[in-house]
Amino acid sequence: MKTSRIIERTPSAYSYPLLIKSLLQNSLKFYPDHEIIYRDSFRMNYREFNKRVARLAHTLTSIGVKEGDVVGVIDFDSHRYLELYFAIPMIGAVLHTINYRLSPQQILYTMNHAEDKVVFCHEELLPLLEAVKPEIETVEKYVLLTDGNIPSSNTISFVGEYEKLIKKQKDSYDFPSFDENTMASLFYTTGTTGKPKGVYFSHRQLVLHTIAATATLGAQDNIVNITSKDNYMPITPMFHVHAWGFPYIATMLGMKQVYPGKYEPGMLVKLIQSEKITISHCVPTILGMLVNSPVAGQFDWSRWKVIIGGSALPQGLARSAIKLGISVMVGYGMSETCPVLSLAHINAAMLEGLTEDEQVEERCKTGRPIAMVEMQIMDEKGHFLPWDGETMGEIVVRTPWLTQGYFKEEERSEELWEYGYLHTGDIATVEPNGTFMIRDRKKDVIKTGGEWVSSLEIENLISQINGISEVAVVGIPHEKWQERPAALIVLRADTNVSKETIVSHLEKYVHTGDLSKWAVPDEIRFVAEIPKTSVGKIDKKRIRAEFV
Fold first, then answer.
1. What CATH code is carried by the domain that includes residue 468?
2. How far apart are CA 206 and CA 23, in angstroms?
3. Per-residue pLDDT tens for 269-304?
4. Is residue 537 part of a domain?
5. Prior bond to 127 cis, omega within 30?
6. 3-class SS of residue 384
């Protein structure tokens, strides 16, 4: 029996490490004059961007940041944040993107657990930092980020203001090469119970994720494609899973990039229109806020492509977006997966052969795995389940870029990787063609009348009623049936939808056999707002508490 041939490296050959600096270097090859823009106040091209990253690297080392040190960032989406995305890991330090929407005690926990040494903080977010400053254990220095105002602080002493510090430095830097498995980023994800969990990624993982996502979005025949000609703006916070990895993708391709700062509806719409944004990503609630705005019909949205993630895209919202000319589709991933795992898939042939309703349905599916992703559904005993479109199981995954565990939490890490696959906690079916469809979060499946009922399926059907802006469905305890569905609903302005209309709409699907009789909610409440998590997802833990 022949053995495999292992390639041996010639002593003088260079073993090329996959490092983030290679993504930055690529930005100058083809489109160095493309712009990076912050709100309506700052513009630069990639030549200047590369120089600013070099100046920032010198600044970091001058204030004592060394390889392996953790540097925290508390900022809105900005050109400075993008510079920190590169400079911090490129000198061998670790970028900690701090979620400023967490509670003060959670922010404190993440900073101490990560062992932040230096923290960059935006002027508007200083009160969060000042509130926990007495209990911060490891931070030695603070740098101020400002859009013009230099606030005074009685508790925080800054080594300087960002722009003034980098202005003093040289505009070139010899970034080192090191092991590609060096940790590059760290951030914290919050669940329904327990303390925030640290999720971390290496240079190799971030580079491979960038290449695979770019290859899939750029080369696959799909309704949403990207090239270097696109104009990119994130509407997912940069503190959350590297803004889904798109800043690295956009920089590698040399796209025009626009960063909106604090998310203000007027500014978002202004930038989308004035800067001719063609590609964004966001959670459904942000898309709904824009689509349902009274002035949405006054603008041209036809160039805008949007990837929706974080939670399910209701078909009703998808239809509303398409009517405005927006091309929407679902992307799937999670904090632990860097994050992109799959994308909804509709190619040119499908566009010709599918009805409008069928197209909407396909856009809202979890989709097919992107390049280099292995996805399966598994039962609780570790057995793979059939791809028949009906059998439900938990999505488990393997890719080269999954977090290898939770930072400094061995027991939780073992649970995450049970049976050698990363467990997502999402329950799905898989069609024979490999298209995944999430039916619910494992913890959100409603167990009622001896059946499992998908809260997402009920939400999707309710969302299609004219006048519904947002809907959330949860299971609440029931003495006889274990659980029963309950719904929170936000109506659009100047509309009137009754409980009876909702029940009648759902019962139509019960009569056709498309919906279980147990799926019609016992309780329906109309509210002004549905509770959200720190990253804009519907917070079903809080909703369940409101009903109980």
1. 3.30.300.30
2. 10
3. 999 999 999 999 999 989 999 998 888 999 999 999
4. yes
5. no
6. strand
Looking at 173, 200, 227, which one is the last position of a domain?
200
Give per-residue pLDDT as tens, 7-28: 888 989 999 999 999 999 999 9
Question: Three-class SS of residue 380?
Answer: coil
Measure the CA–CA gap between 417 and 415, rounded to whole angstroms: 5
Residue 278 within any structural domain of the chain: no
How many domains, in total, are found in the chain?
Answer: 2
Last residue of a domain, one of 200, 220, 252: 200
Report, as residue numbers or ranges, the catalytic residues: 189, 336, 447, 452
Residue 170: domain span: 39-200
User: Tell me: the pLDDT tens digits for 140-177?
Assistant: 999 999 998 777 777 899 999 999 999 999 999 999 99
The count of C-alpha atoms lying within 13 angstroms of the C-alpha of 162, restricted to the half-sphere facing its C-beta, is: 24
- 426 with 436: CB under 8 angstroms? no
Q: SS3 of 532, please?
A: strand
Question: Is residue 134 in a domain?
Answer: yes
Q: pLDDT digit string (tens) for 449-462?
A: 877 788 999 999 99
Provide the whole-model pTM: 0.87
Q: Tell me the C-alpha to C-alpha distance, in Å, between residue 389 and each of 353, 386, 431.
A: 21, 8, 4
Query: Where residue 69 sits, what CATH number does that domain have?
Result: 3.40.50.12780
Q: Are 367 and 223 in contact (CB under 8 A)?
A: no
Q: Would 276 be classed as within a structural domain?
A: no
pLDDT above 90: residue 533: no
Secondary structure element (H or E) that encloses residue 51, with its range:
helix 46-62
- Give strand pairing partners of 436: 367, 430
